[in-house]
Fold this protein.
Amino acid sequence: MQPEETLRTTLRRIDGKGYGAYKDIRGQYRFSEYSFCIDHVQGDPFAAPSRVRVMLSRQTAGFPPEFFSSRSRTIALADLLSRRFGDACMRRAGHGNGSGKSGIIEMDIPGQEVLERTSVIVRDGEVEARFVVGLPAYGRRIAGREAETMFFHDIPRIVRASLLCSSLDPEEVRLHCEVGEDADALRGQLKERGMVSFVADGAILPRRSGIDDLPMEGGDVVPFSSPASMRVTLGAPNRGMVSGMGIREGVTLIVGGGYHGKSTLLKAVERGVYNHVPGNGREYVVTDPDAVKIRSEDGRRVEGVDISPFIGTLPHGRTTTALRTDDASGSTSQAANIIEAMESGACVLLIDEDTSATNFMIRDQRMQELVVKDKEPITPFIDKVQPLYRDCGISTILVIGGSGDYFEVADAVISMDEYVPEDRTTEARSIAGRHLSGRRPEGGPSFGCPGRRVPDPQSISPRKGRREVKIAVRERSHIGFGMYDIDIRAAEQLVSVSQTSAVGVALWYAVKYMDGRRTVGEVVHRVMDDIAEEGLGILSPGAPGNQALFRQHELAMAMNRLRSLKVRTTSSTGKGGCR
């Protein structure tokens, strides 16, 4: 490790030279308060900024052991430090002068969810922060004096303001850690209590807008209050006893009039697979981590998926035990999405009728009489939702507003009335008994055992032109993977572009486990096991600071939507369901 003065001397030596001379500063330096590492030097002032790191010892950072005494607290502490580092960067004045990205200092800043990230890593009290800097230039000539100011004035000030315990509010740090630890503790009690989700009393579920994930404010906001019949109490290590609505395993309907909070409740449950920052309103809304949002997806590619539990033989004798299509319909895509979710280990399906294919969800008595079953290959979801739970152990939470036929298959019915939930299960069953739907169940009493899919590693290549690996992510919903654009808009539980970035490199990493025998589900679980043991850094070299932890479900979604994917299909050896 070189002394900091070596960096200063080098910057003065290359001042005014061509931009390429910046490569001379790459290396590791010992500053008075931290180690400073320049991992990657951009080749041009208009290129992606340079990647750097600062590393603080446990003594320098000064955080007491209670703030990193558990995995939950460690992740929460790292999350808070990322936020404070980003805040300090934004407060910095006088940056951005020069060509291209000159003078910028930026870190991957989290949103409302608390995720394990590579931007700040805490290991037994040691702190490593990863961020990017735009090396200053005028034209393509090095602005060495400006770079010296960045490295020896701006970055040290940001570090002191954001990464030292003495610079932060200890109560804010404590609360951040405790809320994360409590949420994980609540989530950990769901299975033993026979529940798939828990919504705490007093939670604020509505958001400010469709593009603002902060909690809604004002006199019209209705804090959540559980129906008495569904109220349960769970214990949290810091907050103590927490009461709220427990959504139990099985089939749960969320009903109610338009604009009364049905989809708002489902969205909160959907995001409950993650922890949230204090003040978000959803801090104590927790959901089984293997809950997966399902929707229809017109036009998606489907590769070798056994959708026969939902869709039988198609016209002209086309079978559906290993369906391949480059342009799936709404019903076909929704069926494939459910089977693929089962394959990746989903234990709960989250479905909103607004984003579902109508003919996939229901076929009423009148339609059954007009279009007889011999002419209709689709078995609607209403006839498979209970066998899915009985045979496979997969629960469903379904927002429904247009078909009371689902009352006959529901285990619980929650009615939203001006954002106030009511338990209407008994009444819904009474209505179903008085007003029989008259429809005939279709598809048989069992769910069926979908076939297995084994991916071909040769079909997954990020090569593009002369580049052996070209993986580019600029937005949450798309991954540039070699020659292909992977559209993952349907992966609605991805909440950060940093997760998408990690999914992109994880897809390439996953090829190492494709041996011609492992299924898609087995491959993605192997990848997640590696990450759990070694951390996100195992996915890609170079210490990038722009990745966040995802779930195996989103990795499987990306793999399944890669248009070059090829799989070999085999018959199932058992029932689908949770891993």
